[in-house]
Design goal:
The protein is α/β, with parallel strands linked by helices. It has helices at about 15-20, 20-35, 45-55, 65-75, 95-100, 120-125, 145-155, 210-220, 240-250, 255-275, 285-290, 325-335, 365-370, 385-400; strands at about 60-65, 85-90, 105-110, 130-135, 160-165, 170-175, 175, 185-190, 200-205, 300, 310, 315-320, 375. The chain has a 4-stranded mixed sheet, with helices on both faces. The chain has a 3-stranded parallel sheet with strand order 3-2-4, with helices on both faces. α2 (about 20-35) packs antiparallel against α9 (about 240-250) and α3 (about 45-55) packs across α9. The structure holds pyridoxal-5'-phosphate.
Length: about 400
C-alpha cells in the first residue's frame, strides 16, 4: 500500500468489495422486500426479531426505528416522566440522556470508571435518591459495564436496569449477552455499530412478556387493536427493508467481531512494544478499587478488556495524556490518518442539559476522558498494514511531540 494513501475511520463499502457473496445476499434481500409489497413490520420483521432474540438469549426482541428510539420507548414502557430521576453516565453518546430528558425526567450524572470507561458502580450508589426510577449503564465502545455491582445496587433499591447496548452487540459479561441482563436492552443498527444496517434502525430486548406487549403497542401509537389507543405511543416502527438486510448481516456478526478483536490485539502489541503506555486500573469492583494506579507519566493509555467481559471493540479508544491529544490528532490527519474524538464534551457540560448541572458534583474521569480520548480506525475490513502504519506514526509522534 502506498505510504500516504488516506486511512479513513470507517469505509463501509469495503465489506462489499471483500465479500461479493454479501453484496449478492443483500441485493436479493432488497428485491424480496421490494416484491413483497410490505415495507413496514410484517413477516420479515418477525423473522429478524426472532433471530435477534435467539442471538441475545432473551425471550423478546422488538424492532424499532433507531437506537435513540429504543431508549425512548423503553423508558416510556417503564412509565418514566416528570419528577423521576434516571442515572446516566456523564460520558456517553447524547441519546442515552437525551431520551430521559425528552420524557421530562431528570438525567442524574454518574461518573465513569477510568479503566473501562463505563458507569462507575461506586459513584452510581452515591447518586441514588428516593426519586431514582432507572439506571442506564452504557456498554461504551463495545465492552459491557460492570453489571454485577450495578445489578446488586438496582436489586437492593428495586430499580430496573436499562442497558444501552447500542455499541456492544455481541459483547458478553460473565457469559451473558449485552442487552439480555437488564429489564430491557437497547440496540442501534446505525451503520457504524457492530451490526450496522443500511440506514437507521434499533431494537429493544426483554424477558418480560408484559413489557414486550407494551413496547409493541408503543411503537405503533399505543394502539391495540388498530385505532384503539389506551396508552400514548408514537411511530417507532422498523422498516421491513432494514430487518431483511440486518437478517443477512447477522450471521456474519461473529466474524466481524473477531476481526475487530484481532485489530485491537495488533494495535495493543504494537503500541505496548513502544514502552509509552500505561492504562488506569478498572475501579468497578471492590478488589479492583484497592489496586494501585499505573503510571500517569506514560503518554499513552490503551483500552483494556476487563476480566469476565468480552470487548467487541466497536471503537478503539486510546488516551493521549499531557495535553497532546489535539496536536497529535492534527499531525495524524496531516499524514492522512483519520481519527475521531468520542466525545469532546461530557454530557453534564452540554448547553441543553444546563438545567441538570450540579457544580458541586465530581465528574473528573469524564472530564479527563473528554480531554484525552482518541478513537483510532478499527472497522472489520481495516488492513493489518494500515494498523501498522497508524501505530508507527503514532509512536513517532509521541517520541517527538508536535510543537
Ligand atoms: C449510537 C448510540 C445510540 C443511538 O443510536 P441511533 O441508532 O443512532 O439513534 C444510543 N446510545 C449509544 C451509546 C450509542 O452509541
Amino acid at each position: 500500500m502506498p505510504l500516504n494513501d488516506p486511512i479513513s475511520l470507517l469505509d463501509l463499502t469495503r465489506s462489499l468489495e471483500q465479500t461479493p457473496a454479501l453484496r449478492r445476499q443483500l441485493s436479493e434481500a432488497f428485491l424480496s422486500v421490494l416484491d413483497s409489497g410490505q415495507y413496514i413490520l410484517g413477516p420479515t420483521v418477525d423473522t429478524f426479531e426472532k433471530h435477534m432474540a435467539d442471538r441475545l438469549g432473551c425471550e423478546h426482541a422488538i424492532g424499532v426505528s433507531s437506537g435513540s428510539d429504543a431508549l425512548l420507548i423503553a423508558l416510556m414502557a417503564l412509565g418514566i416522566g416528570p419528577g423521576d430521576e434516571v442515572l446516566c453516565p456523564s460520558y456517553t453518546f447524547f441519546a442515552t440522556a437525551g431520551s430521559v430528558a425528552r420524557l421530562g425526567a431528570k438525567p442524574v450524572w454518574v461518573d465513569i470508571c477510568p479503566g473501562c470507561f463505563c458507569m462507575s458502580p461506586g459513584h452510581a450508589k452515591k447518586q441514588l435518591t428516593d426519586r431514582t426510577r432507572a439506571i442506564i449503564p452504557v456498554h461504551l465502545f463495545g465492552q459491557t459495564a460492570a453489571m454485577q455491582p450495578l445489578e446488586a445496587l438496582a436489586a437492593a433499591h428495586h430499580i430496573p436496569i436499562l442497558e444501552d447496548a447500542a455499541q456492544a452487540m455481541g459483547a458478553t459479561y460473565a457469559g451473558r449477552s449485552a442487552g439480555s441482563m437488564g429489564r430491557m436492552g437497547c440496540f442501534s443498527f446505525f451503520p457504524t455499530k457492530n451490526l450496522g444496517g443500511l440506514g437507521d434502525a434499533g431494537l429493544v430486548s426483554t424477558n418480560d412478556a408484559a413489557l414486550a406487549t407494551r413496547l409493541r403497542m408503543l411503537r405503533a401509537h399505543g394502539s391495540s387493536p388498530k385505532y384503539h389507543h389506551h396508552i400514548l405511543g408514537g411511530n417507532f416502527r422498523i422498516d421491513a427493508l432494514q430487518a431483511a438486510l440486518l437478517s443477512v448481516k447477522l450471521p456474519h456478526l461473529q466474524t466481524m467481531l473477531q476481526a475487530r478483536q484481532q485489530h485491537a490485539a495488533l494495535y495493543h502489541s504494537l503500541l505496548m512494544q513502544s514502552g509509552l503506555t500505561a492504562a488506569d486500573a478498572c475501579l468497578c469492583t471492590e478488589d479492583a478499587a484497592q489496586a494501585s494506579h499505573t503510571s500517569p507519566l506514560a503518554p499513552l493509555a490503551l483500552p483494556t478488556s476487563q476480566p469476565n467481559r468480552t470487548h467487541t471493540f466497536n471503537q478503539y479508544v486510546i488516551r493521549i495524556r499531557h495535553g497532546q491529544r489535539d496536536k497529535i490528532r492534527q499531525a495524524l490527519a496531516a499524514k492522512q490518518i483519520a481519527t475521531e474524538i468520542y466525545y469532546p464534551i461530557p454530557l453534564h457540560e452540554q448547553p441543553c442539559f444546563a438545567a441538570y448541572r450540579d457544580p458541586s458534583q465530581d465528574l473528573a474521569h469524564s472530564h479527563t476522558l473528554a480531554a484525552q480520548s482518541l478513537a483510532l480506525p478499527i472497522y472489520p475490513e481495516l488492513r493489518a498494514e494500515e494498523i501498522e502504519r497508524i501505530a508507527t506514526t503514532l509512536i513517532a509522534l509521541c517520541h517527538n511531540p508536535p510543537a
